Structures are given as structure tokens and as C-alpha cells.
């Protein structure tokens, strides 16, 4: 539960009554057996959920804080009561900054990674002929936004194919480095691919970008929440994150980090009333990127309540458990007849996204059979072929993975050719 004095005692008591009576500790995340953390979530016990890369379930305590604060807001939406939200926003920026080893002046509170990515895309000053480096695994919030801007302004978009079977960070680095030209002004990468789970070596790419005065943006939608992050050490110029994915928080919460010394180079995309401003001087910080009009103020409390849960467990423990679960599931999927998992499988450059092709199979029908067994996955494509994406997280159990394997084996009898099994 949140230790913030901005939430009433009554709200805290109501949230505590709804939350599962669990002490949140690292041992709740054991990759073996059933993680106890699962019992603290609202998620229907009948559903085996493998889609954290899209939306992850949240905790009872978080939902309770948000519901109660929303009710309190609607009961008294006066300007006087709403004065608590700028203070809550200040506290939240400080808290996020501490987790990421940066300063609060470098954090903007936005609605999700897509909004943060768009700020970074639209805010840079560029001219015709400037090169922007992307990959073919960029999220549409960067790829489509850059495409629109390039068409209007004559920019040179250079798309680097992601080597999904890469065996080293050097291979990933080399692909980006080879695309750099004297006209390159920005590199926009998904920190972890939501398609293959490939994790780019951002710190090494940042050194290259810094040496050539190239802006480096990391779309952290797929790393914010499960990975222990040190953005100062990572060296990126900007980074985005969402609360509703791996952080296991509320919808429509997110953050944008912009390095302090480069903020003058990135302009905001919209200026409205500064609802969360406590000081006009803060318009000279990353707060200028969040002046986007009225939003769901109670979401601030829900975001903070999510961090309460994660702090009780520990970010290092969360990353370790997420990696262990993904590695064991990847191994199990590799043993399913006819299954072809993509991605390198090398721990240093692989995260908890596993996309699996089933050559010769009706992938849509196979995924539908999994859902009939209440196994939630995501449809995907890789190399032009239909595939199923599994994104396991710390709440998934050994039994969950076993159910997936059983479902795939039942839906994937060996193909036959001329009466022979193949």
C-alpha cells in the first residue's frame, strides 16, 4: 500500500480490506511452483495469462487505491481538493527517478509509451535529408510517426532488419553502427523487441551515438517494469515506459525520461494548462512534455500503489524471476514437435518475449484452442509467417507453462507425408 500522506486514511483502510493479505517479499517470485504474487492479483484464477507484453493484470491493492481515489475525486472535484495532485505528481516523479537513477527534473508523467515516443519523434528539430535509424521491430508509435514526419519533411528513414537469431550483443550493435552516416541525427530503437524478445545493447549504442551527436531514444515499453534499469549508465537521451505492461499497474500511466542537458533540443508537442505544475520554473524541466491537458488524476495514486507492491518484492528479484521463467518456458517450447521459437536464446540479449512459429499448421486455430483452455496469448507474425507470442511474467507458474505445452502438443500432431509421420 502507498505510504503517501496524500491518500486518506479511510482510502488506505478500504484498499487494505480488498487487497490480498500477503507480505510482499522476493520469495514470492520463485520460478518454481506457483508464485504467491499471483494471489495478490485480480486476474481470474481460471485464466493462464501469457500476454504481459500487451497488458498485464494488476493487483487488488492498486485497483482499490484507484477506485477509491476516483470516487473521492468525483465526490469533490473542487480546485481546492485537486491541489493535492501536483504534489502527488512531484512525489511520483521523484520516486520514478530514484528507481531509474536519474533526476526528477528528467521525468515527465504521460499516458503511455506511445505518447512518450511521439513526443520524442515530433520534438526534434530536423531538416530534409537527415537520417533516422529504426529497425523493422519498432512499435507503430515510432515507426508510423516517423513515416508520417518523413513524408512531410523529406527525412531519410533507414530501417535495419533485426537479426532475430543473433548470438551476441556485438551482432546487434554492428547492424546499427553500419547504418550510421554523417547525416544521421537520431536512432530510435525498441529496447526489447515486442516481436522476438531481442534486447538491444543500449549502453554500447549510446556511446556510439554520443560520439557523433546522434539522439538515441529507447522505447522501453517492453523493459520498464521487469528489468532493473539505470538510465544514467545506459546513456540514452530519452526513454519511454508504460504502467500497464510489465509494471503490472493501471492503464493510461506512463513516463518519459529526457536527459537534462539535451532537453533544450526536444520541444514539447502540445502546450495546455499545467495542471500538475507546482512552480512555473518546472517548465524548464521534463515537465514541459506533460502539459497535455486534463487527465485522470487519481491514476497518480494507482501508479504509486503499483510501485509499493514492486518495492516490497524488489526489482532485482523481479528481473531474475522474469528471466528464469522466460528461459525455462523457451526451453519447454523448443521441445514441442513442430514448434519453432524465434530469438537468439542468449541470456544477455533475450528478454521474456517468446514468439513461436508452427510451419505447416493453422496457427490461428491452434491459438484458438489454447484460448478454449483459458490460455491467453497474442497473435503475431515473424518473417511474414503467422506465429503465437508468449510473454510470461513473474505471476506465471510451472503449471501454467505445463498447460501451454500440453495444449500445443494436443493441437500439433505430427504432420504426415505418404503415410509416414514427419
TrEMBL record:
Record GO terms (molecular function): transaminase activity
Domain Aminotransferase class V: 86-403
Entry keywords, A to Z: Aminotransferase, Pyridoxal phosphate, Transferase
Cited InterPro entries: Aminotrans_V_dom, PyrdxlP-dep_Trfase, PyrdxlP-dep_Trfase_major, PyrdxlP-dep_Trfase_small, TAT_signal
Pfam family, one: Aminotran_5
Protein's name in the database: Aminotransferase class V-fold PLP-dependent enzyme
Species for this entry: Sphingobium limneticum
